[in-house]
């Protein structure tokens, strides 16, 4: 059991890094609290695997410290950190039975046989492996093997955290949700810190209470799935989370208001003032397709647009339109009326997010 | 179902069949033919039935050669397999050292059989050979032409030197194909070095080891050139293995019938041992606790 | 240029891979083969391509029997799951390779490679080698090779599975555009119902080697012929609940009753399976005749902007598809609303007997 703290942590694979682009992990502070269910989400190459290896001890960071509770563990090997890890491809000891696989980590440290029996029985029960205990591990299906490798982490009562590295990649799609539920159950029952690394927003948001979104070696947001959806802290989070991602428009200050492309925007005063106060030239407004209103008749603060394309996805539709020269998308329920070609759109102010230099700025009312 | 069978494709294997016929079936049949006849000259021959087989199976010299052969084959396997695995485990995994070691290890494999015999013949000579002289210097009266134990030990040493690299190479490639995740998982499970070997490396090596052991077994059963050059089968007949007995009989004494019968027995023994061995290994890999078709 | 499959059976070592498939693909059409793994999609494509002759049946390409014609003599190209390119050739040479084999004049090759590359947005990468490209770019190159040669038939075997979902979104939109102006037949295999919907065109639903239904994609989705088609062509799968209609009432498993409404009035008494789409069950009452069900949360699967909520009670296991992010604890009690006017009814054989009307349809 431990709280994992990353203190001024950074990592570069090059021996003499000259700039931020040489860093796989840019300097960061982060705390994973004891007992939390966390995800580390990001596209390939964002540094999430590097960070995972630093936490597990397979890689020593070039700068900063990793702390388990108050202990600096930078120099400790994985076996000394009491960390369990579940890999992308199931790792089981082929020639052993399921029982021996589960007992293996305990036997390695000389646990008494009676205690081993008790722990293995308990873990096998949670993971629904009891009926398979006598089977050779090599003959299991991929999801069973993955449960066995998870079980090897759970049998130890000294484990401070379990790390998951894309653990559901090889699982049959129809079985995935069951395994996801199993994971959540286990988390609630064992009160172990779990960190789940993935590039898939569904895996991350389903498993984790809080998600760290990584982009170019930085954690750009650490929040609940709902926060990532409603208030993305960075334009990348807006783009990466949700299908389709957030609509973003570059805006510029004018004498009396705010303009995007050739269109003058009607904005609430608080938002307009926030934009006017900023010195940056990189100002964007973002709104999710779910919140864009598509109207057949002009309304208050609506803008006329031309509809380019409609994708019918069965019970909802994705409407693509061009607004101020930029491609936009709106998501429309099947019951909503669909304009033919000319339409009007509204951007409800509650769902408009302001980004200055790519990071979200809270606008007071 | 009026399924259409297109059987023309079978013609494509005709050339292969013919090749096999010329290279294997026809020679084998000739041998079978000889084994059931007593041949005096080109025109005089008698049908003898299984007589030659009985004679051969009861010949004490051949029985002794067969026993010697088994003793030899199992001894070299018992040394080469663990030694080969050991070397493979110690070999560097990457970098120029890996390539250098690979080349060094492979060298003995590139030397022809009879040359190996000659090299060792020189090497072990009591008057000028490095090893022969060296051992005598240590005070042991080493002599492979007089002392059967010395001759045996030398032949085994020679075979180990010549063929352990093959096992080592096979194991090395087997070890390289184990994904890193297995080693990482084992570290996290706090497995000892021995446990890593026993539960990760050895199971993953089983397949290459089966091939290696079969190859080495067949090879060793056919060993001829090296002991022939090194010891000539002596002293006495202490290092006369099966193939040499056979050659002496067939070529030296022109006993075509008995040697043909003996060849067939020899062939069947190799086939039988290989089959038993292969089946045993393959069965041990199956999960005997798996119930009906699961 | 149409492609017709007639009574195709395919049996390998006694195992039936394809059984009695009849399919006619119109010239210039975009067709999706939808089915789970091992439904027979790849086998069927290999038969279309001529990589494998069927055990029984005929393949007709613009009226001509090509069942036994080898793939080399048909004008076919194929894109695979794996990004298959020649590693020692540049992107330009990769795309040009089918044209060089066909001995197309040099100038013509140059023109067509550039045209294809710009269509696929990889014109700036023509000098690079496949190893220097990202996964998406490699797949674009492989597609370039398939598109450049003006094939009569282009087959895509789950080309996007190895790409991450953001790239998949982009590709789906582009693919539709790419094929609008072409006169070839495109066949696209996928396991994902939503991909079939996004691609549009026509969809053939395959299950265990049999063709369940073929037609315009929206039509197959909204008007499935039977319960299996409805389940295969929906993600999350349509919720199916056994129901008994007697007199003026519907009963779910003896316990839940509700009066037959106007929509379902035509159903004669008997046993049925009722299907309700995951997105039609809600957390709030939408109409006054919605059924209120008390359930427990199995798990809330959250996909960034939507939530797949698995719930159950003693009688059912249901999946809800909600727009937006909803966080629920495992086993949390909850009320959900089951719409009685959006029900598909299937008879005991699984054949559809009632399809709900769609308010938004036009």
From TrEMBL, chain A:
| Protein's UniProt name | ABC transporter ATP-binding protein
Q: Which InterPro entries match?
A: AAA+_ATPase, ABC_transporter-like_ATP-bd, ABC_transpr_FbpC, ABC_transpr_MalK/UgpC-like, Mo/tungstate-bd_C_term_dom, NA-bd_OB-fold, OB_MalK-like, P-loop_NTPase
Gene Ontology CC terms:
ATP-binding cassette (ABC) transporter complex, substrate-binding subunit-containing
Manganese listed as a keyword: no
| Transmembrane parts of this sequence | none
Instruction: State the UniProt keywords alphabetically.
Output: ATP-binding, Cell membrane, Membrane, Nucleotide-binding, Transport
Which PROSITE patterns did the record assign? Answer: ABC_TRANSPORTER_2 (PS50893)
A Pfam family reported for this protein in Swiss-Prot or TrEMBL:
OB_MalK
Q: Name one GO molecular function term.
A: ATP hydrolysis activity
Taxonomic lineage is:
Bacteria, Pseudomonadati, Pseudomonadota, Gammaproteobacteria, Oceanospirillales
Ranges for domain ABC transporter come to 4-241
From TrEMBL, chain B:
Keyword Transferase among record annotations: no
- Topology versus the membrane: Multi-pass membrane protein
Q: Which GO terms describe its cellular component?
A: plasma membrane
Fetch the InterPro entries from UniProt.
MetI-like, MetI-like_sf, Sugar_ABC_transporter
Report the subcellular localization.
Cell membrane
Q: Name one Pfam family in it.
A: BPD_transp_1
Q: What is this protein called?
A: Sugar ABC transporter permease
Keywords assigned by UniProt, alphabetized:
Membrane, Transmembrane, Transmembrane helix, Transport
Q: Which GO terms describe its biological process?
A: transmembrane transport
Task: Give the family per the record.
Answer: Belongs to the binding-protein-dependent transport system permease family.
From TrEMBL, chain C:
Note whether Transmembrane occurs among the keywords.
no
Query: Which keywords does this Swiss-Prot/TrEMBL entry list?
Result: ATP-binding, Cell membrane, Membrane, Nucleotide-binding, Transport
Recorded protein name is ABC transporter ATP-binding protein
What GO MF terms are annotated? ATP binding
Organism of origin: Billgrantia ethanolica
Name the InterPro entries for this protein.
Answer: AAA+_ATPase (IPR003593), ABC_transporter-like_ATP-bd (IPR003439), ABC_transpr_FbpC (IPR015853), ABC_transpr_MalK/UgpC-like (IPR047641), Mo/tungstate-bd_C_term_dom (IPR008995), NA-bd_OB-fold (IPR012340), P-loop_NTPase (IPR027417)
Q: Does the keyword Cell inner membrane apply?
A: no
What positions does the domain ABC transporter occupy?
3-233
Among SUPFAM superfamilies, the record links this protein to:
MOP-like, P-loop containing nucleoside triphosphate hydrolases
PANTHER family to which the protein is assigned, alphabetical: MALTODEXTRIN IMPORT ATP-BINDING PROTEIN MSMX (PTHR43875), OSMOPROTECTIVE COMPOUNDS UPTAKE ATP-BINDING PROTEIN GGTA (PTHR43875:SF1)
Q: What domain of life does the UniProt record list for this protein's source? A: Bacteria
């Amino acid at each position: 059991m431990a709280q994992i703290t990353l203190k001024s942590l950074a990592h570069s694979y090059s021996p003499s890094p000259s700039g931020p682009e040489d860093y796989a992990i840019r300097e960061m502070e982060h705390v994973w609290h004891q007992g939390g269910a966390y995800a580390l989400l990001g596209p390939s190459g964002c540094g999430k695997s590097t960070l995972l290896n630093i936490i597990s001890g397979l890689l020593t960071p070039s700068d900063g410290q990793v702390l388990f509770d108050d202990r600096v563990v930078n120099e400790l090997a994985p076996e000394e950190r009491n960390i369990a890890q579940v890999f992308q491809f199931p790792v089981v000891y082929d020639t052993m039975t399921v029982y021996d696989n589960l007992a293996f980590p305990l036997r390695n440290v000389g646990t008494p046989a009676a205690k081993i029996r008790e722990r293995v029985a308990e873990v096998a029960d949670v993971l629904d492996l009891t009926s398979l205990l006598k089977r050779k591990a090599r003959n299991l299906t991929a999801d069973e093997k993955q449960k066995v490798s998870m079980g090897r982490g759970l049998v130890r009562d000294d484990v401070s955290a379990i790390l998951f590295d894309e653990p559901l990649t090889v699982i049959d799609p129809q079985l995935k949700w069951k395994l996801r539920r199993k994971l959540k159950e286990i988390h609630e029952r064992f009160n172990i810190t779990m960190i789940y690394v993935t590039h898939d927003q569904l895996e991350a948001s389903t498993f984790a209470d809080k998600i760290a979104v990584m982009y170019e070696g930085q954690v750009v947001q650490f929040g609940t799935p709902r926060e990532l959806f409603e208030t993305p802290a960075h334009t990348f989070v807006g783009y990466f989370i949700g299908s389709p991602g957030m609509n973003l428009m570059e805006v510029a200050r004018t004498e009396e208001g705010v303009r995007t492309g050739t269109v003058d925007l009607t904005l609430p005063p608080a938002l307009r003032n926030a934009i006017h106060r900023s010195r940056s030239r990189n100002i964007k407004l973002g709104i999710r397709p779910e919140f864009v209103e598509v109207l057949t008749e002009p309304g208050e603060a609506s803008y006329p647009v031309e509809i380019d394309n409609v994708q019918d996805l069965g019970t909802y539709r994705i409407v693509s339109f061009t607004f101020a020269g930029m491609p936009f998308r709106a998501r429309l329920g099947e019951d909503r009326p669909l304009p033919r070609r000319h339409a009007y759109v509204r951007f409800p102010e509650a769902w408009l997010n302001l980004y200055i230099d790519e990071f979200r700025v809270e606008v007071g009312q | 179902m009026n399924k259409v069978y297109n059987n023309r494709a079978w013609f494509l294997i005709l050339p292969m069949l013919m090749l096999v016929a010329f290279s294997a079936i026809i020679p084998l049949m000739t041998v079978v033919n000889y084994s059931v006849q007593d041949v005096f000259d080109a025109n005089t021959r008698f049908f003898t039935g299984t007589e030659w087989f009985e004679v051969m199976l009861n010949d004490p010299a051949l029985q002794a050669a067969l026993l010697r052969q088994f003793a030899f084959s199992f001894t070299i396997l018992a040394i080469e397999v663990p030694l080969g695995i050991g070397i493979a485990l110690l070999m560097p995994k990457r970098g120029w050292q890996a390539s250098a070691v690979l080349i060094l290890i492979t060298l003995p494999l590139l030397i022809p059989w009879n040359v190996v015999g000659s090299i060792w013949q020189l090497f072990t000579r009591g008057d000028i050979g490095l090893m022969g002289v060296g051992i005598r210097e240590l005070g042991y009266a080493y002599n492979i032409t007089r002392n059967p134990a010395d001759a045996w030990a030398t032949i085994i040493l020679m075979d180990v030197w010549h063929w352990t690299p093959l096992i080592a190479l096979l194991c090395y490639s087997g070890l390289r194909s184990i994904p890193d995740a297995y080693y990482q998982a084992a570290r996290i499970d706090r497995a000892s070095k021995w446990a890593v070997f026993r539960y990760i490396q050895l199971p993953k090596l089983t397949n290459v080891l089966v091939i290696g052991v079969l190859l080495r077994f067949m090879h060793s059963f056919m060993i001829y050139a090296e002991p022939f050059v090194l010891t000539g089968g002596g002293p006495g007949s202490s290092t006369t293995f099966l193939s040499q007995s056979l050659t002496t009989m067939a070529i030296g004494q022109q006993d075509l019938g008995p040697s043909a019968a003996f060849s067939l027995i020899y062939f069947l023994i190799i086939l039988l041992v290989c089959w038993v061995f292969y089946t045993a290994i393959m069965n041990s890999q199956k999960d005997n606790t798996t119930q009906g078709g699961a | 240029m149409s492609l017709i499959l007639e009574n195709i059976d395919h049996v390998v070592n006694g195992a039936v891979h394809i059984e009695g498939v009849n399919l006619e693909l119109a010239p210039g059409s975009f067709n999706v083969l939808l089915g789970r793994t091992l439904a027979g999609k790849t086998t069927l494509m290999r038969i279309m391509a001529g990589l494998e002759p069927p055990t029984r049946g005929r393949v007709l390409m613009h009226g001509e029997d090509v069942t036994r014609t080898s793939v080399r003599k048909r004008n076919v190209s194929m894109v695979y799951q794996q990004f298959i390119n020649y590693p020692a050739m540049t992107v330009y040479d990769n795309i040009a390779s089918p044209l060089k084999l066909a001995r197309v004049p040099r100038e013509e090759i140059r023109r067509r490679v550039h045209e294809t590359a710009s269509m696929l947005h990889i014109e700036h990468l023509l000098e690079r080698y496949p190893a220097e490209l990202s996964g998406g770019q490699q797949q674009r190159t492989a597609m370039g090779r398939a598109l450049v040669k003006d094939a009569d038939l282009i087959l895509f075997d789950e080309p996007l599975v190895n790409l991450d979902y953001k790239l998949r979104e982009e590709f789906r939109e582009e693919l539709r555009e790419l094929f609008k102006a072409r006169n070839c037949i495109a066949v696209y295999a996928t396991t994902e119902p939503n991909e079939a919907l996004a691609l549009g065109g026509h969809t053939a639903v395959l299950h265990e080697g049999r063709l369940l239904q073929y037609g315009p994609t929206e039509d197959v989705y909204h008007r499935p012929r039977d319960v299996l088609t409805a389940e295969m062509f929906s993600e999350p799968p349509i919720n199916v609940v056994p129901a008994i209609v007697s007199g003026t009432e519907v009963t779910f498993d003896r316990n839940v009753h509700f009066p037959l409404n106007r929509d379902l009035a035509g159903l004669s008494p008997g046993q049925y399976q009722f299907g309700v789409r995951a997105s039609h069950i809600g957390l709030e009452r939408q109409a006054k005749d919605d059924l209120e069900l008390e359930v427990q949360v199995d798990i809330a699967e959250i996909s960034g902007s939507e939530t797949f909520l698995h719930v159950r009670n003693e009688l059912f296991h249901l999946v809800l598809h909600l727009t937006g992010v909803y966080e629920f604890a495992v086993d949390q009690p909850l009320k959900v609303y089951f719409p009685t006017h959006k029900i598909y009814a299937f008879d005991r054989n699984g054949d559809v007997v009632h399809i709900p009307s769609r308010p938004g349809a036009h």
